[in-house]
Specification:
Distance between the termini: 148 Å
Strand order of the largest sheet: 1-2-3-6-9-12-15-18-21-24-27-30
Structural class: mainly beta
Shape: elongated
Radius of gyration: 29 Å
Length: 536
């Protein structure tokens, strides 16, 4: 009885293996399972630009063929995971010195070098490559020629049929737009965009600083939602590191403008050389277009582009007029991951015409222009809270600008009542007890008052958020400092409205710029010398 059962089991297994062989299946290269399908890239070469050859129809399995196969997969075969098992052979792109694989991608007649990832639920995971380094992507994709082709395209539209893809552990070099995102709910993590393979410098397209490392690292299209971009590094872009369009996308814990470890090497310290063509080429920052995005806990430092003298250097974060209800918090701008204050060669955060934006707990250091630039006739209900601004040299007055730069610059395009609204004033400081009123000519009932520490040099800064209090209906307020002020310290304030029309036609939740430094320096004493009268 037992022998017959064992024999039956053996015959069933043999039949299954025979059937798999007849069907041409390959467990190592494309195995269907209850958890989906795995396609294993086993060659670092790019042998042709066929749009139809797959890893089932030809060997070896290249990344191009794996992508063609993945995009054609039926819904029942998804999710698709593209993994790597490339030999450690220089002929296969293996770089023994760096312990990684460099895949040189062929050019095509299309704008992009690869077929679009279609159908959704496709993962390309460079970290699956056995062996290799552990401190950066093992798989580096290098675009052809002068870097004017786009890299990977994720999804064809945001209608819902191409969502849920993952790009992880990949390096991108010598592309125009390294990754274009046309769908929703995708994850991009642990990737390098625009870095040399060793992670220590920028990889320039056409070896030309004006071309940078590309036009963008991640370019999200209009209408896409819920994409998560985390733990990536972006360097050297002549456009923006990430163009964040659509709605409710998240950009968190990324390095922008730095090398792989988040630092900025070779940064000029001579004031005459800062932000000149001999300074660090960190590239562009972020642009935000569309509502409800979250930009959180990123390091943005060393930004500079190779542009014509007199042109405007990039903002670290450009908040466009459509970015209503966006949240920008806990970022460090001008400070690298090693806490070196290296600055950025433009504005820190530029908000023009947005509404209901929360800018909280960010730290700025040596932004070449204003740390926070606020402008636009439709600017409304944007709250600033807990932002620290440090600067080592006086603020500049750019040529042609109506105003000099400042820690918080209320620019001339704002409605006049908002531009000229005065924050709270301090009327008394007694040890740790501070009290005050609304700003001169600017009644502010029930406003939120934030007190910042500053020193007594001639530079407007907000070195530390000391306390946040709520004013009474008559605008008076009191606060307790964490410690008494020293002789070289003072207080600056901001005020945030609590109701509509505190500032005429402006909504509640609108924060105005920094106050003068309190206590105000006393006027210089006048000394009179009385001479004796002399009779003649």
């Amino acid at each position: 009885m037992k022998k017959s059962v064992l024999l039956g089991t053996f015959l069933a297994l043999a039949a299954a293996v025979f059937l798999l062989t007849l069907l041409g299946g390959s467990i190592s290269r494309a195995a269907a399972a209850p958890q989906g399908t795995t396609i294993v890239v086993d060659s670092g070469l790019d042998l042709d630009t066929s749009k139809s050859t797959t890893c089932l129809s030809a060997t070896p399995c290249t990344l191009r063929r794996a992508i063609v196969q993945a995009r054609l997969a039926a819904a029942g075969d998804r999710p698709i995971t593209i993994t790597f098992n490339i030999p450690a052979d220089p002929a296969e792109g293996y770089n023994a010195a760096l312990n990684l694989w460099e895949l040189h991608i062929l050019t095509t007649t299309d704008p992009s070098v690869f077929r679009t990832l279609e159908g959704g639920q496709i993962t390309i995971d460079g970290g699956t490559q056995p062996g290799g380094r552990t401190d950066g992507p093992k798989i580096i994709l290098i675009g052809p020629s002068t870097g004017n082709k786009d890299g990977l395209i994720v999804g064809t539209n945001s209608a819902g049929g191409h969502d849920g893809n993952v790009l992880r552990g990949l390096g991108f070099q010598n592309f125009k737009n390294h990754v274009i995102v046309n769908s929703n709910d995708n994850l991009f993590e642990d990737n390098w965009f625009g870095l040399a393979s060793d992670g220590l410098d920028v990889y320039l397209r056409n070896d030309d600083p004006q071309d940078g490392s590309g036009s963008s690292g991640l370019a999200l299209s209009d209408g896409v939602m819920n994409n998560l971009m985390q733990n990536n590094v972006f360097l050297g872009f002549d456009g923006v590191a990430a163009a964040i369009r659509g709605e409710a996308n998240i950009f968190t814990h990324n390095y922008v403008g730095t090398i792989a470890d988040g630092s900025v090497p070779n940064k000029q310290t001579d004031p005459s050389l800062i932000c000149t063509p001999v300074d660090w080429l960190g590239g562009g920052g972020l642009s935000l277009d569309g509502p409800d995005h979250l930009v959180e806990a990123n390091v943005i430092a060393g930004l500079r582009q190779e542009i014509f003298v007199g042109s405007t250097q990039p903002d670290a974060i450009w908040v466009q007029s459509t970015c209503d209800a966006c949240i920008i918090e806990n970022n460090q701008i001008g400070i690298d991951a090693l806490d070196n204050e290296v600055g950025v060669c433009g504005i820190g955060i530029d908000i023009t015409n947005g509404e209901q934006i929360q800018v909280t707990d960010n730290v700025f250091a040596d932004t070449f222009n204003s740390a926070l630039f606020l402008n636009g006739a439709l600017y409304d209900a944007n709250t600033l809270r807990g932002n620290v601004v440090r600067r080592s040299t006086p603020w500049l007055h750019p040529t042609g600008s109506a105003k000099a730069d400042n820690a918080i610059l209320m620019y001339t395009g704002l409605p006049d009542p908002l531009e000229f609204f005065q924050p709270a004033q301090v009327t008394a400081v007694n040890g740790t007890a501070v009290s005050g009123t609304a700003g001169p000519g600017s009644p502010c009932p029930n406003c939120i008052i934030e007190l910042f520490l500053d020193d007594t040099d001639a530079i407007t800064e907000a070195l530390q958020s000391l306390v946040v209090v709520t004013a009474a209906a008559d605008g008076t307020w009191s606060a307790t400092l964490p410690a008494p002020l020293t002789a070289s310290q003072g207080i600056r304030t901001t005020s945030t409205t609590a109701q509509y029309n505190t500032i005429p036609n402006i909504s509640a939740g609108t924060t105005v710029g920094l106050s003068p430094l309190y206590p105000l320096a006393p006027p210089e004493e006048e000394y009179w010398i009385y001479l004796p009268s002399i009779s003649r």
